[in-house]
Structure prediction request, 478 residues.
Amino acid sequence: MVVMEKRIHLYVSRKNALTWLMALCLVGSAVTRIAFAGLKGSGETLEVWSQIILPVAATLLYVLIVLINGKEMFYKTAIPVWMLGIYYAFQPHQIVGGNTFVLAMYCTCILFYCLLYMAITCGRIRWPWLLVPLYLAALCAVAYAHRYFYASDPQVWPTLKRVLPDYLLFTGCLLLSFAIRVHADGKYHPTWGDRSDGRKIRTLAPMAQITAYFQVERNTCSNLFEESFEITNIDRYIRQKRREGLTDFGITHVLLAAYVRGVAKYPQLNRFIAGQKVYSRSEDIQYCMVIKKEMTVDSPDTSIKVHLNPHDTVYDVYEKLNAAVESVKATKELDSNLDSLIMTLNLIPSVVLKFVVWLLKLLDYFGWLPKFLLELSPFHGSLFFTSMGSLGIPPIYHHLYDFGNLPAFGAFGMKRRALEVQEDGSVVQKKYIDVKFVLDERICDGFYYATFFKHYRRILRNPEILDNPPDEVVRDID
Prediction:
């Protein structure tokens, strides 16, 4: 196993006055850059884009990242820093004076500055205080770059117009460097390569890292698993819960709660593949399910998504699942937000819709799908579980979806009775339920799957353990 270097995770808080002073300085930098550029009367398109739009966009983007995502994604401020690096690379003439060697050194310094900033903010370099001399160096570089203006133009105002935007920019960033803190909660925080719905697993064995590049489609990488569970204890457990007041309690709640408890011990079941990379949802177990308003052929159906947690008891699973079902069934036409989105997409002409779907797949590949779409999508989740028993038929092997990242699809059938011969020669009638799973083999190896399902069987033999939270929740590897 590859050992991942220990990183720190930086953040800034909106409650810190220095954060707002930074925002004030950077907004002022953007405003003065636009105002003073207008006074110069520049009409060249390239100059407008490279000298006005690019730095203004980078400055405002920096402010937005800090104020909106500074608590969890401060590392993303490296994006506007790279944009500013491009901006300053466009104007080396103020420093180099036509000297090719100095120009090369100038561009090298900009590249080094951006790389160092990125390494600090993503936690690879464990000394965040290095940002202070980094910003001071930038201020000195700005002063050096504008030395010609100080010497050639004795009037204050023309010189101020040229230097004020840059001074405000780096002064604000310098102020912010004193507001930066290190997360000390011991939890994982996002960094480069992570998605909004999962963190990238970086310590996989080499073979596991490259497998998804050779086995691209999810359905061609599916393993089929079938098991029969004796449900005498489960039936007794269900009757007990109904006597306790959980009137809608059924076998779906037991099977789902047992799966959640299994993930608490074997967290690799909560991984998924996206963009040929392996990700973990950590403690967010996303359960997807199709529901119908009535058990009739003409009754509409829709999908729901329930967020579960490895710490959940069977009571938590019952409350969360029933709340999600009732919230959708309460609507007149059983319309969910997903149905509204699909109806909107159906209004698009077919050729355009095909392009839209291709674009959605592309965004999903790079992890750029908006969170609200991920939340609505039944193709993105940890597990899809369906009851064939409610339809009066045995379970089926349901395919996985090539779109999205759902790694497991389970189905269970109706209860059945079987006559079994005991060791003493007597014949006993027992009740069973058949369960079938289709699993993405790329998220973990076969031994891990086998160990998980052995544990799953043990839980279902003693469902009472689901009444209490697990003694320990195992964290997936980095």
Remarks:
- The mean pLDDT is 86.
- The chain has two domains: 10-182, 199-467.
- DSSP finds 16 helices and eleven strands in the chain.
- Residues 45-69 form the longest helix (25 residues).
